[in-house]
Design goal:
34% of the residues lie in helices and 18% in strands. By secondary structure, the protein is of the alpha+beta class. The strands form 2 sheets. The chain has a 3-stranded antiparallel beta sheet with strand order 4-1-5, with no helix packed on it. It has a two-stranded antiparallel ribbon with strand order 2-3.
Length: 115
């Protein structure tokens, strides 16, 4: 059974109190639509090819999903924690909002005796 029908002849008609205009080759309706039921002579079946990616593995199939962003985020978090510890050891009062660049600068300043 076809899911979608296309208009094969342009025209206009009243449906449910409203004027409905259909255009040849443009207007599409789904199977079971009330307009299709009221005017089946205006429509013909079309084949629709859906591009759908399989979301799950088939039985026996293994799917691997790599999430490099998580690994990268973990690495960045470890780096920041290490830099915070180093900065505190150097006598810097660390602001938790500082990123790696600021932490490195504060550590360098502290080692030069600026802080």
């Amino acid at each position: 059974m076809t899911d979608v029908y296309v208009c094969k002849e342009s025209g206009a008609f009243e449906y449910d109190g409203d004027m409905v205009v259909v255009n040849k080759g443009v207007t599409r309706v789904r199977s079971g639509h009330p307009i299709l039921a009221a005017h089946p002579e205006l429509f013909e079946e079309i084949t629709v090819h859906y591009d759908v990616e399989q979301a799950t593995a088939a039985p026996g199939e293994k799917r691997s999903v790599k999430v490099p962003a998580v690994e990268s985020a973990d690495k960045d978090a470890r780096e920041i924690e290490a830099l915070r510890a180093e900065a505190e050891k150097a006598g810097v009062t660390v602001d938790k909002r500082w990123g790696p660049d600021r932490l490195k600068q504060e550590i360098a300043d502290a080692s030069k005796g600026k802080k």
